[in-house]
UniProtKB/TrEMBL annotation:
Protein name: Enoyl-CoA hydratase-related protein
Coiled-coil spans in chain: none
One Gene Ontology molecular-function label: catalytic activity
Superkingdom of origin: Bacteria
Family assignment from sequence similarity: Belongs to the enoyl-CoA hydratase/isomerase family.
Pfam families assigned to the protein according to its UniProt record, in alphabetical order: ECH_1 (PF00378)
InterPro entries: ClpP/crotonase-like_dom_sf, Enoyl-CoA_hydra/iso, Enoyl-CoA_hydra_C
Taxonomic classification: Bacteria, Bacillati, Actinomycetota, Actinomycetes, Mycobacteriales
UniProt organism field: Williamsia herbipolensis
Length: 269
């Protein structure tokens, strides 16, 4: 992956493999606390995706250790000379990543091994497909340190689990186990072993990247817009989208492959 010389890419934090943008969102310090450098590097790469200068078909979010992300580094909060200013700056960096994730308009897969707490749970809420294991646990966490949520949790969580359940999960700071997270729709899949979480997430992201990228992006947009659209408007948007895709390279290949009883090849770019 290339990047301007003024903003070099740290390949330990961001890299492209098989058409998938891998972004490491936490550090092994502090039980896998949110990594500000990972946020910055991920934001830069995602902006390149949105601008069309970096061609990927999926984004993989992961943590390097036993946990996906245990939230912000609370010890750094405590050590800051001005805690309000410090946390405001960190929230801005965090929110920059989430906005870039939305602007990139690409399927997002999260490898949710171990804990996803605080900011980590917020990130899960912004993924399209979240893969967990038997040891995966989620928690809002913010009330436990006397803070309110950030990372769009109060926007995304009610849309996933419903308003009443979102209030309960945030206000009571409840621990959400993997089976419960799957039932609520926070996780898309729970694999049999925690060791299988990251490999499975990589496999899913790679499969998405090899698929019909225009169609997947269009489906994501329709799903997002459909949450607030009127039925008549959503039907019109769906008709417009499917008709455009039918005349595109991927749509032509997909339909022709079906008729010819062969596997479609969407990999030509």
């Amino acid at each position: 992956m290339t990047s301007p010389d003024s903003d070099p890419v740290d390949r330990d934090l961001v890299r492209v493999v098989d058409g998938v943008l891998h972004v490491r969102i936490s550090t092994e310090r502090g039980g896998n606390a949110l990594d500000p450098d990972g946020l910055d590097q991920g934001t830069t790469a995602l902006r390149q995706v949105a601008a069309g200068s970096l061609d990927v078909g999926a984004v993989l979010l992961y943590g390097p250790g036993a946990n996906f992300c245990a939230g912000g580094d609370v010890r750094s909060f405590a050590a800051a000379p001005d805690r309000s200013t410090f946390i405001a700056a960190l929230a801005d960096r965090f929110h920059g990543l989430l906005l870039a994730l939305a602007d990139a308009d690409t399927p997002v897969v999260a490898a949710v091994r171990g804990w996803a707490a605080g900011a980590g749970m917020s990130i899960v809420c912004h993924s399209d497909i979240a893969i967990g294991g038997p040891g995966t646990s989620l928690r809002a966490a913010y009330p436990g340190i006397g803070l309110s949520p950030d990372g769009g949790m109060t926007w995304a969580l009610p849309r996933i689990v419903g308003a009443a359940r979102a209030r309960h999960l945030i206000l009571t700071n409840a621990v959400i186990t993997a089976p419960d997270a799957l039932e609520m729709g926070l996780l898309s899949q729970v694999v049999g072993s925690d060791d299988d979480v990251v490999p499975t997430a990589v496999e899913v992201a790679t499969r998405l990247a090899a698929g019909p990228r225009s169609a997947l992006r269009a489906a994501r947009r329709l799903l997002a817009d459909g949450a607030t659209a009127q039925l008549v408007d959503q039907l019109a948007a769906e008709a417009a989208s499917i008709s455009v895709l039918a005349g595109g390279r991927e749509g032509i290949e997909g339909v022709d492959a079906f008729v010819q009883k062969r596997r479609p090849d969407f990999t030509a770019r």
